[in-house]
Amino acid sequence: MTAGTGVYTSRGLAHDLRAVGLRTGDVVLVHSSLRRIGPTEQGAATVVEALRTAVGTEGTIVVPTFTAANSLSSPVHRERVRGMTAQEVDAYREAMPGFDATTTPSTGMGAVAELVRTTPGARRSTHPQTSLAALGPLADVITRDHPLDCLLGEDSPLGHLCRLDARILLLGVGFESCTAFHLGEYRSSDPSVRRYDCVVADGRRADGQPGRRWLSFEDVALDDRDFGRLGAWLEHRRTDTGRGVVRRGRVGAGIARLLPMAHSVDLAVEWFKEHRTAGGGSTGDRIPLTRPPG
């Protein structure tokens, strides 16, 4: 925080991030709430600069850039059409813009994620509902492949991150926002499957307007409703060396948690096995979207 100004600087936040355990060269999946970090000199830009300073030029920053508004199967869409007549719903769906990885903003992921997405040199995966964006030397490797029928599984950027020994940083948000836990659902025995529907951009129509097409696919029925309980359990787990799996500290005005992704996903599989019913647990029809920062 700059003396006398009451705002946090990138230098100060970078110091806090290193104190929590972030290191040069880290690949880190970041979920954040700018409001909970507190006032900064340049808003989200200060936080992104601090993250880049903490991991250095050898490190890679990854953020969720999910898009719920283009999906018929998301809570966002259901809320927007609530109370509409059938004709109004049809008209609304006809006007829904198709997802374009280069231009479509994320939904509810926060200012830091949006700034990473739009930073020159950033790469974004092409999934129309659960894309991730990355900034750094491994950005292309992480985002290059993202199959339609693998929202957040082994062949998605989450799988790549796990294999790259990435770390998870929850910056001012709780475990409810921990996207990586969804990978544990894919690894659970016999997970439930559901249908997803979304609209994507598809060239130009004859009248010059953006073209669109609808996609339908089946994938694991993901559910984040118990991630808070899973995270509370995880905070009491220890590694073989006796250190807690989750490192916790203050970054700016917010609480930050740093945890190893691969080990945390393994523990999530263990927790799901004990605390969820057979077949993958609860089967609510919610699309797996990280909760918007508060």
UniProtKB/TrEMBL annotation:
Keywords: Acyltransferase, Transferase. This is Uncharacterized protein. One of its GO terms (biological process) is response to antibiotic. GO terms for molecular function: N-acetyltransferase activity. It comes from Streptomyces regalis. The keyword Transferase applies. InterPro entries: Amioglycoside_AcTrfase (IPR003679), Antibiotic_NAT-like (IPR028345). Belongs to the antibiotic N-acetyltransferase family.
